[in-house]
């Protein structure tokens, strides 16, 4: 176990970096994804088209390709925020496509009768959205959103290839130094990922319970 | 209270409302019956503009139905609606379902709205369920909550769009009894239904629709015992045989 006792500070730093990637790209994905989802359900045909185009491009391109573009391509055309941010940009825009689809499915999952009943008692569009449709859509969005963020957590490990010293990067370093304890190291680092994902699942089920309707 | 003149509506190629001229006086209870696809639900839904019309005019309480926007919302607040599938707000308690409209739309104080809601829930017989979510109630109870929710807005007219069609037989009665009480209390009501018993007991007038047209209008007594049109005779022959 000396791989752990001698290196726990570096391992924790690694997971810190994993969480930083998750935080930056996750926040970006939430903002962009919500905007894209709103565009996709809006009554304006052009916005719907733009939203659909975004999802088609970013959901269908392999994440590794997007990271390669962000890492090598964007600096070429003068978009260079440093490699950490550029990689987060790739992960965030990729994940935003999935966030957008999760939110859209939530909107579509609220029965039309709910909005009709709200209008029938005299609520204007904004009130019926705010009090009736959105709260129910959020609840439906929670499970698919948890899946999206769990996938993102694991996808952050791709950044190891690009020299970001996150958990998987640290794991490879430990493999070199403690070749005889590879299985232990592998299990230990996996456990770290499992813990992060467990927290996401726990938060999701807490939200689900809070917004339960039966 | 409600006046429709020369109303036409198409769903694509399908002409669902044809030359509708229809008036309802204050305090009147009108039952709209007819075979499925005859346009009776659509007619009901045009009155608070959940469905738009292509030609003609609709007036509610002497005011022309406004286009989308604030004025339409204000008019809808005065028109109660009860749906076939209840449509109670699934994430709100029974009490909140009844108070939400008065608080958010009418600006009534929460305490006043709750007091009134408890009275209305008492009146429709579901006061004991006030703290529950809609999914915990039977269909009949949900529909009675939906009636209370509509009444909480103090509507000038109530629209019922097949209010008992989604209910088990033993629950139909409790909802119809609630509606009969309302009718006796002088509420203006337009009721789309297949419940001939309700039409006989509570209606001032029966309107028979077929293929998007109002084919016949008469008192329940006259309509059921002496229908004029072949279409109505055929319809009544089919439904009254069993």
Automatic annotation (TrEMBL), chain A:
Keywords: Amino-acid transport, Cell membrane, Membrane, Transmembrane, Transmembrane helix, Transport. The chain crosses the membrane at residues 21-39, 51-74, 81-103, 182-204. GO terms for cellular component: ATP-binding cassette (ABC) transporter complex. Residues 15-204 form the ABC transmembrane type-1 domain. It is found in: Cell membrane. GO terms for molecular function: transmembrane transporter activity. The keyword Transport applies. PROSITE patterns: ABC_TM1. It holds the Pfam family BPD_transp_1. One of its GO terms (biological process) is amino acid transport. It comes from the Bacteria. It is a multi-pass membrane protein. Gene3D superfamilies: MetI-like (1.10.3720.10). Belongs to the binding-protein-dependent transport system permease family. HisMQ subfamily. This is Amino acid ABC transporter permease.
